[in-house]
């Protein structure tokens, strides 16, 4: 796999810290007791997280739990104010997303950075266009870009009828998939997905989850941010639940069941209190309300998704 590793922009030598082939047990990205304050607001504290190659690490949590803050630190948008952040075992502090990208950490944001009216293949290469010819007459290598985009999308199992169609005409799920394939092609080692299924229906969520699994199969470390324990459990190897800025649960797949994960997310006691409150409202039959464990309708499994 291509790696984006190169000497850091501040001149530090990272050559001898690059893990050897086969050093699968070393995390690519690690947070140790990390935290972040925005002035007086302590958005995140005491967070431990490890991201391994070929594994999906899910970060779950309710609104305001600190999920976005966590990925902003890892993707170089913000800096941590407590603890340590390491890449390949070396403490880092990124000033820009470019520095994170140079270490192979790519982020697919929900509001995807695409140009809706440009064709799919153009968006695939946006900002990193292929060119041909010597300098004074250098021009875009359109044929090669189209062929490569087509090949890379197929490699990930993404079949689009026409790469000439404006990317804005694709569904939200398809656009997410193109963004994932793009990150893989440009050599990402860690792929951060910020709630990729939040705005999607059942079927499209299944399709996106399929490509999350495909990225893992290609050996990437995936950080999958989601509200949805069902989506997380379909693809996750490790689960970290944030609550009010701290890590409430950190467990491997073997250590936690979907039911327990859902309970953690729903907050069993809070739900009981809500049920009691609703019982005071006329017309709500509390016995008809779901238990915490039943919350969140199961969705189609990834394999059921349309390919
Ligand atoms: N730039 C900022 N300045 C001040 N406070 C912030 C800032 N960004 C986030 N916060 C606060 O930090 C806490 C965590 O926010 P964060 O956006 O990380 O949560 P989240 O888990 O991503 O929530 P959501 O699911 O709604 O996206 C919140 O209380 C939020 O108000
Ligand atoms: Mg958020």
Chain-wise SSE layout:
Elements (H helix, E strand, L loop, with lengths): L28 E10 L2 E11 L4 E6 L5 H8 L7 E6 L2 E2 L5 H6 L2 E4 L11 H5 L6 E2 L6 E2 L1 H14 L16 H14 L4 E5 L7 H16 L3 E6 L2 H7 L2 E6 L2 E7 L5 H9 L1 H12 L28
Parallel strand pairs: 3-10, 3-11, 6-9, 9-10
Antiparallel strand pairs: 1-2, 1-4, 4-5, 7-8, 11-12
Helix pairs in contact: 5-6
This protein binds adenosine-5'-triphosphate and magnesium ion.
The site of magnesium ion has 2 residues, from helix 1.
GO molecular function: ATP binding
Protein name: Simple sugar transport system ATP-binding protein
Organism: Streptomyces pseudovenezuelae
Descriptive notes:
It is built from 9 helices and 12 strands. With 307 residues, the protein is α/β, with parallel strands linked by helices. The strands form 3 sheets. Strands 6-9-10-3-11-12 form a 6-stranded mixed β-sheet, sandwiched between helices. Strand 9, helix 6 and strand 10 form a beta-alpha-beta unit. The N terminus and C terminus are likely disordered. Adenosine-5'-triphosphate binds next to strand 2 and helix 1. Magnesium ion binds next to helix 1. GO terms for molecular function: ATP binding.
């Amino acid at each position: 796999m291509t790696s984006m590793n190169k000497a850091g922009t501040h001149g530090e030598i990272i050559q001898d810290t690059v893990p050897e082939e086969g050093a699968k047990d070393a995390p690519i990205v690690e947070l140790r007791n990390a935290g972040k304050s925005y002035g007086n607001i302590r958005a995140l504290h005491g967070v431990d997280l490890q991201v391994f190659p070929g594994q999906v690490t899910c970060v779950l949590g309710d609104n305001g739990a600190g999920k976005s803050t966590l990925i902003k630190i890892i993707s170089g948008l913000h800096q941590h104010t407590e603890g340590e952040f390491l890449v390949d075992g070396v403490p880092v502090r990124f000033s820009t997303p470019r520095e994170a990208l140079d270490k192979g950490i790519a982020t697919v944001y929900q509001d995807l950075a695409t140009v809706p009216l440009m064709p799919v293949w153009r968006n695939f290469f946006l900002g990193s266009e292929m060119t041909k010819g010597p300098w004074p007459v250098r021009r875009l290598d359109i044929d090669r870009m189209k062929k490569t985009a087509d090949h890379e999308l197929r490699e990930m199992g993404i079949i689009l009828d026409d790469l000439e169609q404006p990317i804005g005409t694709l569904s939200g799920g398809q656009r997410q998939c193109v963004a994932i394939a793009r990150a893989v092609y440009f050599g990402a080692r860690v792929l951060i997905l910020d709630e990729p299924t939040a705005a999607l229906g059942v079927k499209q969520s299944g399709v996106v989850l399929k490509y999350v699994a495909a990225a893992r199969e290609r050996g990437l470390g995936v950080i999958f941010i989601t509200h949805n324990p069902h989506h997380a459990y379909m693809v996750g190897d490790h689960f970290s639940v944030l609550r009010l800025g701290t890590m409430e649960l950190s467990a491997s797949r073997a250590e936690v069941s979907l039911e327990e994960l859902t309970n953690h997310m729903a907050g069993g006691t809070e739900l009981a209190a809500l049920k009691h409150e609703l019982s005071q409202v006329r017309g709500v039959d509390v016995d008809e309300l779901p238990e915490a464990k039943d919350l969140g309708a199961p969705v189609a499994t990834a394999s059921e998704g349309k390919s």
